[in-house]
Amino acid sequence: MKSNVKHVTILCLKLQMCASCNSVEKKIYVHLNYTVPCVRLLNATHQIGCQSSLSGDVGVLHVLESEENLDWVLSSGPNPPYMVILESSLFTRSVMMKLKNGSSRVAGIVVVAPNTNPVEGFSPHTSCPNENTGVYSESYDPTLAHCNVTVWNPLGNGLSYEEYDFPIFSLKDDNDTQVIRQCYLNHNQAVNGSSPRYPLCAMQLYSHMSAVTDTATCMRRNDINFSISPEMVCDPLGDFNVWASTRPLNNTEKGHKMWEKVVIAAARLDSRSFFFDVAPGAESGASGFITLLAAAHALRNVTQEAQPNRTIFYTFFQGETFDYIGSSRMVYDMENNQFTVDLDNVHSVLEIGQVGLHGESRLWLHSDPVSRRNSSVNEEVRKLIENLQSAAAGLGFTVGEAGFSQPLPPSSFQRFLRARQIPGVVIENHQLNFTNRYYESMYDNAEYLNVSYPPNLTPEEQLKFVTDTAKALTEVATMVARALYVQAGGAENQQDNINADRQIVSQMLYGFLVRSNNSWFQQLIPSDLTSHLSKPTNFYVGVNQQSSEPTLLVQYLLANLTGSAINITQENCQNQREDENDKESKHVRHETGFCVRSTVRLSRAVSPAFELRDYTSKDYSTWTESRWKSIKGRIFLVASHELEMLTLGVGVGVLLASLLLTYIISSKADILFSSGREPT
Ligand SMILES: *[C@@H]1O[C@H](CO)[C@@H](O)[C@H](O)[C@H]1NC(C)=O
Ligand SMILES: *[C@@H]1O[C@H](CO)[C@@H](O)[C@H](O)[C@H]1NC(C)=O
Ligand SMILES: *[C@@H]1O[C@H](CO)[C@@H](O)[C@H](O)[C@H]1NC(C)=O
Ligand SMILES: *[C@@H]1O[C@H](CO)[C@@H](O)[C@H](O)[C@H]1NC(C)=O
Ligand SMILES: *[C@@H]1O[C@H](CO)[C@@H](O)[C@H](O)[C@H]1NC(C)=O
Ligand SMILES: *[C@@H]1O[C@H](CO)[C@@H](O)[C@H](O)[C@H]1NC(C)=O
Ligand SMILES: *[C@@H]1O[C@H](CO)[C@@H](O)[C@H](O)[C@H]1NC(C)=O
Ligand SMILES: *[C@@H]1O[C@H](CO)[C@@H](O)[C@H](O)[C@H]1NC(C)=O
Ligand SMILES: *[C@@H]1O[C@H](CO)[C@@H](O)[C@H](O)[C@H]1NC(C)=O
Ligand SMILES: *[C@@H]1O[C@H](CO)[C@@H](O)[C@H](O)[C@H]1NC(C)=O
Ligand SMILES: *[C@@H]1O[C@H](CO)[C@@H](O)[C@H](O)[C@H]1NC(C)=O
Ligand SMILES: *[C@@H]1O[C@H](CO)[C@@H](O)[C@H](O)[C@H]1NC(C)=O
């Protein structure tokens, strides 16, 4: 009986609180149109990212002018909590950590994205990317673990890996932000140190996240929820790797030892930034995979005419940013006889990393000092390095060998080395730490790679325009292609016939970094998928059950660049595509209706931790992304202080009355309830 009464009291209290929050007068009421949130991600042990409360967080706008000005937000301002508007120059670790520490007075943060990149550089990533899931563990070589020798990303401030218990959004510096600034100037600015008067301009941000704590917790809740309703709280990060080979491989025959060896040519596809849907990855991803696509194209004719003895296996890995999801899965599949190629068949690995030249004329070859202690591995690595150096002869740059005692930079090849000592080299534009000043940030974009066009060109003219960046990457692709051919056992005298196409490189740079909705990409991909094409591609891996835009684009591009068009009917093309036993994949090209025959295939890029249901795995990526219902933001004026006090007064009055009522009911409960129950 008594506990029932308590329930009534609590219910009354809740009603009172909502009565006062609903009565806040909203004079103007502007919805923000282009909001980019930071979302919650979880791994085996932590949650990172941002979230609002279920009903959105409300705060009085405060445009932060300098770091000293933080005092207003954190202690002196009279109207907390505040919604802090940050110019990008103040989006630093020091400011963010102070705001995080003072989160009781901070309702949320809005970062205004600038229209030009900050010259001093910015990387919200860690300074030692994928520190614990590469090959350099304590057991492999303790002197090389934890970026002990080289800190690859010294500018990394780690903001992307912090947890915030308020929402953080990004807005483009445009009309939306102008409305916000104006609202702040008109209503909230403190004049001569006096506190601003009501009504005040406030903002509400919604980004409530369903998942909490860590991946094991949210996967358990998924399982529980699934038995009741198919409502998930989080999903594993994942997508598809794209691969192709110069010789058709029987895709139904898994894990067999082939007579021929394969040379793996790898690049990574994905990238990320602090915010959910801006990950341009120009240098960190695109420079490498565009180079590899162009190299594959340059090798099409020569590998058809004079097939070298080893097969070249092109692969584009997804999810590498999050503890090597794509490469760890492929290696896992190889080890478990679930993949077309077996680890025994791998001859060597050539990986293309960040290769934007930025006007420099030097590239660096990185290799693993530990496996090179084995003399046969060392011999193969040395040959591959010589091979690359002679392939670069006559091109516009030189290639040097990075220090012999330095470990590999973060790279997919590390996951192969974890399984076996395989000879291999990673090509980068840096000898020591990254030259990329915007690693895994929203500024690693076309502007940073110097992909820009003379004014007044139409989109069609821009697509075709050959920039200096395109010229440089074309040369890199030529070197890669020539080296791969020799590495596969091809004749060295063929090298002059292998040249990458600068027109194709230009078009890829435009398509991936400037506008994917262009006439070329529209021709390549099936018509039902063209509607997804947008602005610059977002390379964040996401939680895709079907392949995402970057995966699709690379898949169809690779088919176009390495395959051949055959004149058969659309139905035949469709039928043969579904034939899984086929050695080749086929798809219909949208415009001409031609059938394209190629060896391009997709393979699942979801971490083996989720296959094994080992959500606390130390070997495999455990990253999941929380689900959410709505992401939105709006600004409005909150009512005058007097009105609010009045509302509060009425609320308190009603509350007292109800408490009194509850007290009377509970003290007379014996009389009120039990007498009726007693059988007479
Ligand atoms: C965090 O805030 C508390 C007061 O709320 C303060 O005493 C402490 O020094 C702050 N810590 C940092 C690291 O700023
Ligand atoms: C790297 O590791 C070695 C051996 O553990 C240690 O002696 C050395 O001080 C470390 N160097 C740095 C820069 O931490
Ligand atoms: C990064 O490397 C360059 C040389 O490549 C060096 O001058 C610079 O000091 C390094 N930066 C850091 C922060 O270590
Ligand atoms: C999970 O992420 C956090 C934050 O980046 C990191 O400190 C921790 O080591 C990660 N846990 C595992 C098991 O990788
Ligand atoms: C932004 O505002 C200006 C003038 O107020 C207007 O000319 C322009 O069309 C607006 N842009 C957008 C995208 O609404
Ligand atoms: C968002 O778009 C709507 C409709 O297009 C417009 O009325 C509103 O003013 C826009 N919001 C801002 C902040 O510009
Ligand atoms: C602020 O102070 C200055 C001088 O102290 C004075 O001239 C000005 O009128 C004041 N402004 C307002 C709005 O009170
Ligand atoms: C592929 O391998 C399977 C299983 O070994 C075999 O049945 C099939 O005939 C092969 N297909 C081709 C085209 O060689
Ligand atoms: C490849 O061969 C085709 C015809 O077989 C020819 O049209 C094309 O120009 C060749 N490409 C290169 C790069 O040599
Ligand atoms: C490649 O294979 C052919 C025929 O099988 C053989 O004659 C040749 O020696 C091989 N080349 C190399 C480099 O192994
Ligand atoms: C690739 O695309 C180009 C232009 O879109 C087209 O002319 C060519 O025939 C295509 N090649 C293949 C093999 O599909
Ligand atoms: C394709 O084949 C059909 C008949 O098989 C033929 O009529 C047509 O001209 C061919 N098209 C091309 C472009 O070769």
TrEMBL record:
Residues 37-211 form the Nicastrin small lobe domain. Belongs to the nicastrin family. Keywords: Glycoprotein, Membrane, Notch signaling pathway, Signal, Transmembrane, Transmembrane helix. The chain crosses the membrane at residues 645-665. The gene is NCSTN. GO terms for biological process: Notch receptor processing; Notch signaling pathway; protein processing. It is found in: Membrane. Residues 1-20 form the signal peptide. The keyword Glycoprotein applies. It comes from Amphiprion ocellaris. This is Nicastrin. Its main location: membrane. GO terms for cellular component: plasma membrane.
